[in-house]
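User: Can you help me understand a structure? I only have the sequence.
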Amino acid sequence: MKIACVLVTHLPVKAEIQRTAILRDKPILIITQSSDGPRVLDISSEVKGVFSGMPLQEALSRSKDAVLVESDEAYYDQVFDQMMEGLFNRSPLVEKSKLGCAFVDISGVEKLYGGEDGIVSTLLGAVEPHLGPRIGLANSKFPAYVAALNSNPGQSSKVPKRVPYFLRNLPVDLLPFSWDDRLRLHNFGLQTMGQIAALSIGSMQAQFGIRGRVAWELANGIDKSPFIPSKYKEMMTDHLDFPVPATSLSMILPAMEVLLGRIFSHPLLRRRCIRSILIQANVRNRPPWVKRVAFKSPVGRKDTAFSILRNALKTTDIPGPLEDISMKISDIAGEFGMQTSLLVDIRKRRCLQEAMQQLETRLRVKPPIYKVMDMEPCSRIPERRRALVEFRP
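Assistant: Let's start by predicting it. Here is the structure, written out as tokens:
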């Protein structure tokens, strides 16, 4: 299999600079809240010695002059979705990975696009130039990601056949681990991939558990993670300009009702439902306002959607005079209902699939749902008796 990694580094920073030009050329720290306090989501190139995932207190001690920006995940997801839409227009085999990163299966399409140069040109053209996309080519995902990371914006790199040789001098910070896990590797004196590859897999697993085995395999160019194509999401957008800037809900709600009427009258939504709505508006002399509303269950009527939006916006502060407003629908569900069926198991499975999709829409991440599977019920070691596996209805 041949994989191309399409990578936009520091997508949150680039998205913030795109909508707030005053941030350009300034040291920026984008902060997100976590269960153990604020942490760094992304940094600009002007910030040195700070990494994604680092606690805010430690980051500020290393970069005291940085401008702090509260993260806007809905806006970053919107920028990433636009990037994914461009890639889906070029290839149906696209896997959506972490923010700003996507993998494309390019096996057997060299003749179609005129060789690797044609593939690279096509993929680069699918992403907005101001995002500075990079391309990495390899036979598996992690080496392709590293190759893309080591490319220049608007260019590509290809991993040679000797993958461990290519990775040996690269830092362990490139591993897909959390900040705490990477810090633990550094504390053991492991700074480069070559140092991990030189150890035995047993010693790595004894010290770091399953993550030690994964780190050893990746450092040796072994990536067992499968390529899982993402499903293309149908999208609908509609836009409305205000004759005069809107400053209150009494002016904004009628415009939203008009947009919802247009959206639900579209043939694409005939006998179908939506799971969420993304609202965006340009604010005079301020950054754009983005609001995402996820429904508890799929909605198939304009009146119901408008009632939910109206209640959700009652507690929302309008950031300033809105010059326009737009709605984007990307989570479109099939016909929703509780129709009975003679095949009870199939009906339960479909309902469970719909529930998990709705949960993913609300959480904006894949729901951490697992099932317990018997492995060695009679084993004397408790850990071997059962295992948690990803649940896929």
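Now, to help you interpret it: The chain has a mean pLDDT of 86. DSSP finds 15 helices and 15 strands in the chain. Let me know which part you'd like to focus on.
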